[in-house]
Prior knowledge:
Elements: H1 2-30, E1 34-44, E2 47-52, H2 58-65, E3 73-82, E4 88-90, E5 92-98, E6 102-104, E7 118-120, E8 125-131, H3 132-145, E9 151-158, E10 161-164
Amino acid sequence: MTVAAFVLGLLGFGVAVSSLTWQVYTFLMQGARPKLTPVVGYHYGGGLLTNDATRDIRESLRSATAQFPPGGQYVVGVNVVNAGRAPFHVAKWAIRVDPAGTSFVSVDDPPGCPSVPHDIAPGADATFFTRLVNLRALSAASGAIDRRRQRLVVTVESGGRTYTSKPIAPVNLTIGAS
């Protein structure tokens, strides 16, 4: 009888642990979970072409933009994907340069860029962007403030929290430069 009680106790313990684990997992998955990807791209009258900015994409972007009519502009920004089960509220987005701590908040976004504040539905995404020349100016100003190697990241603020993307590859600053 004691062996049967021991086996039954072990089985009950296993069910309890798995149930608690499942409850913790579902609690963590209920809220909004943003996934940030810095992007560099080309904005033209009819749309937006973007690439992941964490690596060197200069040649790829140049060949792609050659297919579009002239008059567009190079842009930089962030693609925010809401992987959670609740809407994600974007209160503010900015491009920050570390360790100088200088940041750029766009107040004159190009047409087609969502205005902030902005809500992103579960499973949806939004791309916030500004002109690439603004990032070049920010990088130059930060270099004058702090001579150490600068790291460019994009930040999104929501509900008192700041989410930070991976760094933007510095070579992408030369895209479209004369």
